[in-house]
Design goal:
The protein is α+β, with helices and mostly antiparallel strands and 223 residues long. Helices cover 26% and strands 19% of the residues.
Length: 223
């Protein structure tokens, strides 16, 4: 027989939930390595930076400008940042740079934590062109039935191809104006299953009346 299962007290359950919440929070965090330059600005390592070639981004980490400024900064640079999932490899990277180069010191090379509030990208508009118009790309499976004549090698199609809504598989969202893809962005707050429907014959009038939704660069499927 196995060991009897331990029944946790209310206090133990509370501590367990707290620990699980802290672990979940840490999993959502990301870490960056920055070096403080002569102007006092913290410059983050670029995505392709290595200990042999420690390249930095030209856009400083706005550490003293508040959470909103940091979130705006992250939207712009997140694809170019060297991001670490935990603090240990980030600190290892910083330590190796300090050991290898005179320029990097314990005083000017720091690891910063980017909280889930910063790295969780909730979509509001296209970060590239400012458009609020989004296109959804999906794949739908169609089935076509055939009858085969093995003697004369002929094929007969039995009816039209058919499909079902549940056979549609979501692929991605992208900007309707500049075609930027939004793989990292969260659209869960938007109800795409029950949208307000604009008929085809009314779309042009809608677009004219809502030019504030347009992006700065128009190369998408509506142009």
């Amino acid at each position: 027989m196995g060991r009897p299962r331990k029944i946790l007290t209310e206090k133990e359950l509370e501590l367990k939930r707290k620990k699980e919440a802290e672990e979940a929070y840490k999993r959502e965090c990301r870490y960056i390595v920055c070096v403080k330059n002569d102007e006092g600005k913290y410059m983050p390592l670029a995505d392709d930076a290595t200990t042999r070639r420690p390249e930095e981004l030209v856009l400083e980490y706005p550490i003293d400008q508040g959470i909103d400024a940091i979130k705006d900064w992250y939207v712009i640079v997140h694809r170019a940042l060297k991001l670490f999932r935990t603090d240990k490899p980030a600190q290892n990277m910083a330590d190796r740079l300090i050991e290898r180069y005179d320029y990097y010191t314990a005083e000017n090379t720091k690891v910063f934590e980017l909280t889930p509030e910063i790295v969780h990208l909730v979509f509001t508009q296209c970060p590239k062109c400012g458009s609020k118009r989004v296109s959804k790309r999906s794949t739908r499976i169609y089935v076509t039935n055939y009858a085969i004549d093995s003697d004369e090698h002929k094929v007969k199609q039995l009816g039209e191809p058919y499909t079902w809504p549940e056979w549609e598989e979501f692929d991605s969202y992208f900007c309707s104006d500049c075609l930027e893809f939004f793989q990292e962005w969260d659209f869960s707050k938007y109800n795409f299953d029950n949208p307000e429907y604009i008929r085809d014959e009314d779309v042009e009038a809608y677009r004219e009346a809502h030019r504030d939704e347009e992006g700065r660069k128009k190369t998408g499927p509506f142009y």
